[in-house]
Structure formats: C-alpha cells, structure tokens
C-alpha cells in the first residue's frame, strides 16, 4: 500500500474545501480536536468524575 504524497494531499484538501466551504472547515477541525482530547483523557484515565453519574428517580406511591 503506497503512502500519500504531496500532490495527493493537496488534491484531497481542495476536494474537502469545495465540499464543505471555508467557513465550515474550522468548526469541523475544532470538533475533531475536542473529540481527540476527550478520547485521550479517557484513555489516560484523567476523567475528573471517575464514577458515573446516577440519575435520581422519583417513585410514585
């Protein structure tokens, strides 16, 4: 399997720019960065709340 070279990466970037537009790409990259950070924190066990939140239920009598 061959790696991607410079011309292929440029072509991919142009296609993405044409598909999503210049304003949407920074929003997508920001969301991707947040997702990667959350994944890394979860993988490393840096979750500040180690126990899952429990939902309180009201029992009707």
How would you describe the overall organization of this protein?
With 61 residues, this protein is mainly alpha-helical. It has 2 helices and no strands. The protein has helices at 6-20, 24-44. The longest helix is centred in the middle third of the chain and has 21 residues, at 24-44. The mean pLDDT is 81.
Determine the strand fraction and express it as a percent band: under 5%
Rg on CA atoms, Å: 21 Å
What is the terminal-to-terminal distance?
66 Å
**Tally of strands:** 0
Pattern of helices and strands: HH
Describe how the helices and strands are arranged.
Layout: H1 6-20, H2 24-44
Give me a quick take on this structure.
Helices cover 59% and strands 0% of the residues. The protein has 61 residues and is mostly helical.
Key features of this structure:
61 residues, mainly alpha, 2 helices, 0% strand
